[in-house]
# Entry
Amino acid sequence: MITTGQLLLFFLLAFHPVHVSVTSMEYNKGENIFLVSFKVFTDDFETIVERKYGVDLNLGKEDELKNADEYFNRYFRESFNFMVNGEELKEPVFLEKKINDIAVWLYYRYPISGNVEEVEIKNIIMLDMFRDQSNLLIFKYNNFEKGFIFDREKVKIQFQPGKNS
# Structure
């Protein structure tokens, strides 16, 4: 089992051109939602969006594409699937994006209904672009916290957060 500390240490030591994304999923009991953030390298993300959809995002620049949100929402809907209790959560609510010199953080809200008994996550972010891509994920639900790594060999995980998976 990979601990959250190991994942964070790995990420902190990993500098570009290492191909890595980081996803954080944290349950908010008061609102019955998962807050999900994705961190990807800006240049890689712009490249994959340009290749897949034929548009230049120019994130964080004066000439940033006005409807850039539409394209990264589309990309993450196609590349990240989240199921709770056998039901796919298809319509995440986009909250915001934050951009610095090297990375883009995208924030979403996934509403759920009821308790979380079983989770399935498919994460293929950037896997079709880089052979060495790794996607790190930290999942928190109540007292359960676990880290996962996705790559070309492992694109899907399934677990029960209440059963110390």
